[in-house]
Structure formats: C-alpha cells, structure tokens
Amino acid sequence: MNHHQRRESFSVTISNMGSGSTVVCPNTDLLWPFGKLSGLDGNDIRETAYEIFFTACRSSPGFGGRTALTFYSTHNNNNDNHGEGGGGATSGGSTGVGSGSGFGFSGRKEVVTTPTSRVKRALGLKMLKRSPSRRMSTIGATGGAGTTSLSPGSGSGQVSPGAGFLTVQPSRPRRPLTSAEIMRQQMRVTEQSDSRLRKTLLRTLVGQTGRRAETIILPLELLRHLKTSEFGDANEYQVWQRRQLKVLEAGLLLHPSIPLDKTNNNAMRLREIVRQSENKPIDTSKNADTMRTLCNVVVSLSWRSTNGNPSDVCHWADGYPLNIHLYVALLQSIFDVRDETLVLDEIDELLELMKKTWSTLGITRPLHNLCFTWVLFHQYVVTSQMEPDLLGASHAMLAEVANDAKKLDREALYVKLLTSTLASMQGWTEKRLLSYHDYFQRGNVGLIENLLPLALSSSRILGDDVTISQGKGDVKLIDYSGDRVDFYIRASIKNAFSKVIENTKVKIAATEEGEEAAATLLQLAKETEELALRERECFSPILKRWHSVAAGVASVSLHQCYGSILMQYLAGRSFISRDTVDVLQTAGKLEKVLVQMVAEDTEECDDGGKGLVREMVPYEVDSIILRLIRQWIEEKLKGVQECLFRAKETETWNPKSKSEPYAQSAGEMMKLAKDIIDEFFEIPIGITEDLVYDLAEGLEQLFQEYTTFVASCGSRQSYIPTLPPLTRCNRDSRFLKLWKRATPCTASGKDFSHTAPPSDGHHPRPSTSRGTQRLYIRLNTLHFLSSHIHSLNKILSLNPRVLPATRKRYRHRNNNTSSYFDFTYAGIESACQHVSEVAAYRLIFLDSNSVFYESLYLGEVTNSRIRPALRVTKQNLTLMSAILADRAQALAMREVMKSSFEAFLMVLLAGGYSRVFYRSDHSLIEEDFENLKRVFCTCGEGLIPEEVVDRDAEIVEGVIQLMSQPTEQLMEDFSIVTCETSGMGMVGSGQKLPMPPTTGRWNQSDPNTILRVLCHRNDRVANRFLKKSFQLPKRR
Predict the structure, then answer these.
(1) What is the pLDDT of residue 368?
(2) Band of the pLDDT at 238, cuts 50, 70, 90?
(3) 8-state DSSP, 1017
(4) Of 472, 471, 490, 488, which Cα lies nearest the Cα of 480?
(5) What is the DSSP letter of 342?
(6) Collapsing DSSP states into helix, strand and coil, what is residue 335?
(7) Nearest to 377 by CA among 422, 412, 346, 436
(8) Contact 110/349 with Cβ under 8 angstroms?
(9) Looking at residue 102, what is its pLDDT?
(10) Which H or E run contains 802?
(11) Residue 882 CB coordination number (10 Å)
(12) How far, in Å, are 142, 779, 822, 889, 891 from residue 885 at the CA level?
C-alpha cells in the first residue's frame, strides 16, 4: 500500500499547487512539467480519468453487454498494429442475464491467459511470468469479481459489481480478470463508484447505443442521472457533486481548449452555480431551475468551435493542462499496484483501450509518446530508482519522441510540453551526472550507462545549442557528447572534492597555529590521490565510451581543485612554518602523480595530451614562500589603508573615552600596525632588512597621509578679524559724546557688532566651543601617533632576527638614519604646531571674542578692564588642560598665550572706532597685561617658563611703553623711523612723510605701530599731526 500512497500523494501535490510556483514531485527532486491545476486533488483526477476511460471503452469487450456496442471515434487507428481487444490470446466469457449492474447485457469477456506483450519487448521490459492466480477472480452468486482485497474502496464483506453484469452459478471456477476489472483495480476505483458509472451510462444511452464518446459531457450526465439516494450519505453525495462541478469548471472555465471571453454570460452563470455548490448541494432534479440552467450553459460552452461552425466533438476535457493530468493518471495505471516497479503484462491491451480517450481528451500520438515517456521516467524516479528497466524504457521511447519532434507540423502545445518535459528529465539526470560521485558507488556505477544516453538524447531533441546550469553561472555548450561529458566529469570531480574538504574547512579556518591546518592539507592531498585512483578504476572506463580522455580530464580537475585549496591555505596563513613547507612538498608530489595520470591517459591523443597538461597551472612550490610574504605585506597594508579611508569618511574627532582622549581611528590604525609588525616577525624564515623596509615604507606612507588628514583643520588667518581703517581721534568726536551718555553695561552703537558682557559674575563658564575641543582631540591624536610610531620603530630596529639588507639603497639610507619613520616624525611635529596654533586662535578670536577683542577697553579703559577676560581665559585653559594629553599641553598653552598677546595688541593698535586711549591709560593697561602674563606663568604648573612668557611679551610691552610716551615724542620717533625705513633721509620743507605699510609685525620700532598708537591717542596734537601728514579722517 505504500506504493499506492506514494502515487496518490504525487497526484494530490501536483493538482493543488498554485499557479505561481514550481511543482516538485513528492519525495523527489523531479519537476512536474505539465502545468498546474487548482481545486482538483489527486483522487478527483484519478476518478474522473477512470470515468472518461470507461465511457470511451464502454462498447469494447469486457466493458459492455451481450453484444458489443458499436464504437464510433474520430481517431484513426489504421496504422495501429493492435486490435481493440489487444494482442494477447483471449478466452470466451460466460453468458447470462445481467444482475442490474452495467448495461444489462452480457457478452464475451476479454481475458489474457498467456500474455506476450509487444510493447514490453519494444521497450526492453521483462514479462512478469505470474501464475494464473495472480490475475484470476472467483465468480460469486451475484456475478461480481471477487477482488475485495484489491479494491481500496470496497468494504469487507461487500459483493463487487465492478464487472459483474452476469448472473452465474456459485460453483463456477475462478477465471482471469478482464481488462475492465484490471483497470478498475489499477485506478483504485470502488465497486460502488463503478456501479454508479455503469448505471449512468445505461440511462444516458437508452436509444442512443451508437452515440460517440466524445459527444458525451460525462460530468453533466452523471449529475443528471445520479441522486442522493444512490450514495451512502448526503455528505458523500455533496463531495461527489462538488467534484463533478469542479471538473466542469476546470474544463470549461479555467482551462478551456477554445479561448473563452471573460464576459461570456454562460461562463458567468456556470461560475455562479459552482460557487453556490460550495455551501450546499445544488438541486439536480429534472424540473429544477438550477439544473436546467446548468445543462444549458454546459452544453453551450462545450459545443463551441474555433471558427463558429458546428462542431462534432464537445470540448469539456481537452483543455491544457486538465487533459494531460487526466491522461497521465490513466498511463500511471500500467504499473502493478502490488509492485510499482513492474509494468503489467496487459500493457498492450490497456494502452489500446486508452487510445479511445484521445478524442475526448484531445490527445495525439506525439502527445501520447511524450506523456508515456515521462510516466516511465517518473515511475523510475518515484520507486527509488530500483528498476533500471524503466529508465531504459523511457530512453527507448525518446526515440519515438525524437521522430515526432522532427515533424514540421508540430502544434504549439506540443512544442511547449516537449520543452518542459525534456527539461525536467534532463534536469533530473544532469543533477546526478554533475555529481555522479555522490549518486553512484561501485555497486550501481553501471546506471551511468543508462542515465548518460538519456541526458544526451534529451539535449539533442531540445536543440543543437544547450546550456548547462551549474552553481551561479551558466555554461553554454554545443551538443557534442564529448564536450558535455567533459563538463559532467569536471563538475562531479569538483563536487566530490568539496565533499572531501567539507569537514576540514572549518578546521582550516579556525586554526590559529597552523599545525592542525597543515595536517589537514596533508591528509587532503592523500585523499585527493585516492579519489583520482578511484575515478580511473570505476568511472573512467564507462565514461571513456563518450570521452576518450575521461581519466585525464578528472586528473586535471583534481589538480585545479587541490591547487585552489592550497592557494587559499597559503593566502589565509599569516606565517610560513615548517608545516607549510611540508604541505608544499606534498603538493608537489601530488602534482607529479596527477601529471603522470594525464600523460598515461593521453598517449593516443593527437597532441600527446599537451592541451590537458597546459590546463594544469604549476604549483611553483619553490617560489611561493617569498611571493606569499610579499602578498601578505600588501594585503595587510590594504587593511590599514581601508582604516584610513573609513577615518576620512566617518571620523568626528570625538574622544574614544575619557581615558583615551584621541580619535578612535588613530587607535584602530596603530593597533593594526602593531599587529602587522608582530605577525611579521612570527614568520619562521629569515627576515631580511629588505622586507623590513618594504613593510616600514608602506606603513610610513599611510602614517603620513593620516597625519596630513589630522592637520587639515584650516588656518589661523580665518579667525583673525579684519583690520579697521586708520582714523584720527578727536576730543569732540560723536562717539565720545554717545559713550558718555550710555550706561557701562549697555554700550552700543553703529560701530559695535557685539554687546560687551557684564564685568561682574562670580562663576564664569568656559567659552570653549565644541569645534575647539575637537581641535584638542586632533592634537591628542597627533601625540598618540608619535608615541606609538616610536614604539613601532624600536620593534623594527632592535629585532635580532633581521638580516642585513641586500639592496644598496637601503644600506645607504640606514647609514644616515636610525629610524624607519623620520619623515613621519617631521610631519607630526609640523602638524602639532599647526593644529595648536589654529586651536589657540580659534579659542581667543572666536570662542573668547565677546570678552576679549570685542569688549576689552571698549569706550574708556577704566570701565572695561581685562578682569572678565582673564576669568574666562583661566576657565578655558583649565578645560584645555583637562582635555589635552600631558605632552600636548605645553605647546598648546604657549600658542594660546601667543594668540592672546596678539589679540591684546590688536585691541591696542587695531581696535577701530570704539577704542580711544589717553597717555594716562598706559599704567592701567600695563597692569592688565601683567595680569594676563601671570595667568600663563601660573597655569599648568610651569608648563611655560617665565623667561619664555617674558620673551613673548616683549613686543606687547614695547607697544605699552609707546603708549606712555608724550605725543610729541611719538611724532618725532615716528618721523625718524619712517624716514629710515623708507630711505628718504631727513624730511625737507614741503615734503610729507610716506604712509608706512601695514606688515602685521608690530613692535615699538615699527613706523606702522607708532602710527597706530597716534591714531588711538585722544589729544589735539596727535589729531593735527595725523590730519596734516596723512589726511586721515576723524572718527564719527
């Protein structure tokens, strides 16, 4: 019964699949090529197929009454060598009165006592040679065949009326089964269903004994003549009625042979009736409106024709794929229900009877040949490939299919089915041929001789150009057996080799020390050699019939496979060990064995096997070690370069953590570099200084590029405010009048861009912006780089394993330097200076602008002293010290000091309209500047020595000294210095002093500096001098 269930499950699956997915036959990997049906399961298809079969064969001996009913068919059987009764010997049946089942007549029954099947002989199938009892039936009192045990649907103790339309005496002996009885058993139709079918045909053909089968709309007739009382219960009747309506829906609406307009009224009415039957059975009584409507629409839809002319055949079961599903269900009945690997000896008679359904199902001989080929092949697959004769029979039928495929008058449907069927068969066979090492062993290797011709025949029928799909890519080949077998060999070798390494791959990837991986590679080489020997002994003798150098091709493929794994192993290793050397030597021995096999197999080739040998790329064991090291260096440097690229795209200059106040990308890069150098010196071979310099130069280029990236933060000039134009200050200026009227905290006007902050406040907050803090992180990053690169240089320089260099350019460089990263050190030092300077100018001129340049000495000196700026500066310096690394603080602090001194100078010399100074102010200004100096002397516990502060403050102090001098002295000094710098000597009468250029290098001996002091001096003498000498405008 397991065979029964497998065949039924197969049908159920293919019938219930939706229309949007590929159908695979159950428990196999074979694709179903005949389309999909919705709403009909396997039992529905099988029972409907039997009903059509019985109706078509009703007038044949064994199916009808006393005298065989005349059968009219549109099918031409002139070329068929089999008669309607089959080719076997027959014995006459008993006569008698019918028992109420069947047509009410009795005639001769067709039986087979000594079957000799021509079909089996043609297909190479063996006769079953069963004893007569295997196909015998006991005649009971009711005339039924005693086949209860063989009928899945018949209950225990029931009398089967299946073929029993005779009334005979109980004492009659057992007799052979008729073809009708055999078919009912094979199709697993119950005796009750068979009896109801016979009754329906009897009622339908009253007075129409000559009616052709293709003119009978069988589901409609069954619905008309069978009522609920003839079923076991109402539910059984509803299921049966539902099946008949679904068959009509499939044949007339879903898959009609003649295209149907969606707006067809009859179709819409039929669809509505089918939908109504889902809830409850429809009324099929003679006078019911629903039944009359159903009859009208079904008849109208079934008798349509393509050209509008009257048709002599009704079309209710000949639409694709319904017709193919039904016909395949019939063809599957040729396999013995007791052992599905065997074909019934009565196959000739059964196939001859199935021909009678062709006109109803729209089957032609080419379609029959194609379906029959598929059924034989499918049966071989679903029976676990236990019977090679089925495969041979399928291949024999391919010859008929090939002849049909060559005809010019092929129908479109046939071409479609031909392609899908052969593609399914070819796909299944090629899956095994592409991995024949997995599917065939020493015991069944001979099956390749059956599979290979079938695959090659399928490809020839499909066309000259064929494409083999394997893995990700498609390989297009000309349909030449040698080329195709060549591909099978190479693909199967690769698959077999992958199986060998499947369990070792994880070990190779997970091994750190390399010893286990090396042992695995050594074992793999041994198994590869064994695989080559097994291929030459088992498979090559068979494949040599289609490919003259099959063993050579296999050896070449194995050489390539092992070479690929060898290269992967070497590329994945971070060092060269003695085990690696052993692997390479073993690989060399394997290579010699495989080359020898190729040479022996290609002795008789025209080119002596040179073509195959050229495919074997040498392993080059001798040179691979050095090449591997250089490749390793390149790959490692690529990893550092990728880290650099990621930093350029994603670095935000936020500290990695409080304990690691530098850019995360710098930590990643240094860790990569340290790991690379450590791994480099673990390679157990002599490391020459040439290789060290190769590694060091690559790292230095990346370090320099990263340093440049860190230093790319703008320039200090972008933060220095533009110098205002020179003007002269007069006592009666409008600005002073406005200033005197304004309150100290709300000084504003046309010349102010910002409001000065209040001078009081006990808890000032740092004004350091996020952007400035990120500059501090850049500075930390540079110092982090410097310290770590120094450590890397020590590792490279002091390692005792480094051997002298062999290249002169390295010796020359080594004699002049003790570091591998001199250029990087210089670049980092310059970058630190630049970043510190930019950060300082941003802090003073941008972040502290409101308390420094924009508010210091605004209006009057006494009202805007430096105290608020000092408080904010101290807070900013405290925050800077907290963020910066210790090594970066001194330089950063000094740059902040320089920038604050320059800002102080700009307040004194380039303060614009808003600032005026009296000579008496210089003491206050001097005091403020001393306080500013004290901030840098005391901040950071001596980060900046006092002598350095004093030296950098000399320029500012010189300018303050100028501010303490009388106006007349300033004018005199200005005239002398200007004449000296311009080269004009003493100024004569009528001559004017030239305007000194603004150099930005302010000091007490610079004429431009003295001029600016005069411009900010608020007295009449300075005002007149500036007006007379340079016509400077006065302030408004």
Answers:
(1) 96
(2) very high
(3) B
(4) 488
(5) S
(6) strand
(7) 422
(8) yes
(9) 32
(10) strand 802-803
(11) 12
(12) 111, 8, 23, 6, 11
Euclidean distance between CA atoms 501 and 521, whole angstroms: 9
Q: How far apart are the first and last CA of the chain?
A: 115
CB 62 within 8 A of CB 55: no
Selection from 901, 874, 871, 886 nearest residue 943 by Cα: 886
Tell me which H or E stretch contains 828.
helix 822-842
User: How long is the chain?
Assistant: 1036
Cα separation, 326 vs 318, in Å, equals: 10
Write the single-letter amino acid at 302.
S
Q: What is the DSSP letter of 758?
A: P
User: Which two tokens mark 491?
Assistant: 């693909």
Residue 323: how many CA atoms within 13 Å on its side-chain side? Answer: 24
On whether the CB atoms of residues 593 and 541 are closer than 8 A, the answer is no
Tokens describing residue 800: 């005792």
Token look-up 């907050």 returns: 765
Residue 766, preceding bond cis, omega within 30 degrees?
Answer: no
DSSP 153-217: TPPTTPPP-SS------TTPPPEEPBHHHHHHHHTT--HHHHHHHHHHHHHHTTT-TT--GGG--
Distance CA 381, CA 30 (A): 8
Q: Is the dihedral of CA 818, 820, 821, 826 positive or negative?
A: positive
The contacts of residue 782 (CB under 8 Å, 6+ apart) are 707, 710, 711, 828, 831, 832, 835, 888
Q: Could you give the CA distance from residue 736 to residue 1034 in angstroms, rounded to a whole number?
A: 12
96-113, pLDDT tens digit by residue?
A: 323 333 323 233 334 444
What angle do the packed helices 515-534 and 481-510 form, to 10 degrees? 160
8 Å CB contact between 884 and 780: yes
- What stretch of H or E contains 499? helix 481-510
CB neighbour list of residue 63: distance below 8 Å, 6 or more residues apart:
54, 57, 179, 180
Which regions of 435-536 does DSSP assign to beta strands (E)?
Answer: 465-470, 473-478
Spatial CA neighbour of 851 closest among 924, 897, 900, 922: 900
| Pair of tokens at residue 324 | 């193919």
> Tokens 């109402």 — which residue?
234
* Bridge partners (DSSP) listed for residue 175: 137
- Of the candidates 331, 320, 382, which has an alpha carbon nearest to the alpha carbon of residue 353? 331
Tokens of 719: 């933060």
775 closest CA partner among 883, 903, 658: 883
Do residues 523 and 504 make contact, with C-beta atoms less than 8 angstroms apart? yes
Question: How does the average pLDDT of the chain come out, rounded?
Answer: 79
pLDDT digits (tens, 9 = 90+) for 258-306: 888 888 899 999 999 999 888 888 888 888 899 999 999 999 999 888 8
Percent of the chain at pLDDT exceeding 70 = 78
Q: Give the separation between CA 298 and CA 318, rounded to whole angstroms.
A: 14
Q: Under the phi-then-psi rule, with left for phi > 0, alpha for psi from -120 to 50, and beta for the rest, what region is 990?
A: left
